[in-house]
Amino acid sequence: MSDLSFDKRMTVDDIVGRIKDGMTIGMGGWATRRKPMALARAIARSDLKDLTLVAPYGGPEIGILAASGKLKKLVFAFASMDQIPIEPHFKNARQAGLPVLELDEGMAHWMLRCAAMKLPFLPTRVGIGTSIIEQPGFATVKSPFEDGEELVAVPPLKLDIALIHVHRSDEKGNVLVLSPDPFFDELLARAADEVYATAEKIVSTAELDMRANARFNLFERSVLTGVAEAPFGAHPTSAQPDYEIDMKHLKTYVASAETPEAWEAYRQQFVAVDADAYLAAVGGADAVLASPRPVY
Questions:
Q1: Which domains does the chain have, with CATH numbers?
Q2: CA 256, 257, 259, 264: dihedral to nearest 10 degrees?
Q3: CB count, 10 Å around CB of 105?
Q4: 146-151: long-range pairs with CB below 8 Å, 24+
Q5: Does 34 score more than 70 pLDDT?
Q6: What is the pTM of this model?
Q7: Over the stretch 180-206, which tens digit does the pLDDT of each residue have?
Q8: Burial grade of 6 (CB within 10 A; 0-12, 13-18, 19 or more)
Q9: What does DSSP assign to residue 6?
Q10: I need a surface site. Which of 241, 242, 244, 287 has the fewest CB within 10 A?
């Protein structure tokens, strides 16, 4: 859906207000990098329910929404927190029986692209010989050409709403991602009916300097429905070069998955609060900016 409005600014709560029970929402980023965490926490605070979450490169956004009882189904390729191999609330939700569609990354890519291209299916070799394609919704097709190769037909992965976090935006919806990898954010956006972003900073169009920075732009501004300024909106995941992963806080988050009481204590301190209170609870801006760059 194209939106040519000239002022797309809104608040995080405005964005969450556009989401309805039962919707399929996609969330961008990668595990512990540039996740729309301010939006995840706001959804967790809301009355929303029965959401299908599409998070190909899943991280703590999955865990927070699962632990908050917001999910009806999860579509994912993996759910990790980088140096912490398995997202702990994701693990708890899976063990409790949360319905999922588990995909290979290549299949997730192709299914989003299929939705973006408005096609009924796309052929791929990804998944051949695996149990992934035994899940409902997949089929095989034969090439119509001389080779007759059997291929997997992947269906479109259509989203009602895509949620992403970017470094900079102007009020018109021109966005910049300044870290090296855009991940699946563009595909999530193009597969969705509506697209909302949080941005570290909303600046003037002149400050974006699109002529010099066009390579950092994910998509044309008509793709974006709305944008909210949310400083540190990816925390505790990183938004390089603005700030790094907060591993200290992620360890606190991991501990919250050990018991229901631990989760409730974490939720009260870090989720059931507004952005200013959250930032204060994690030590303030200086503490976030002081997070060291991880060494692998």
A1: 9-104+158-276 (3.40.1080.10), 120-155 (no CATH)
A2: 50
A3: 14
A4: 151/123, 151/124, 151/125
A5: yes
A6: 0.94
A7: 899 999 999 999 999 999 999 999 999
A8: exposed
A9: S
A10: 241
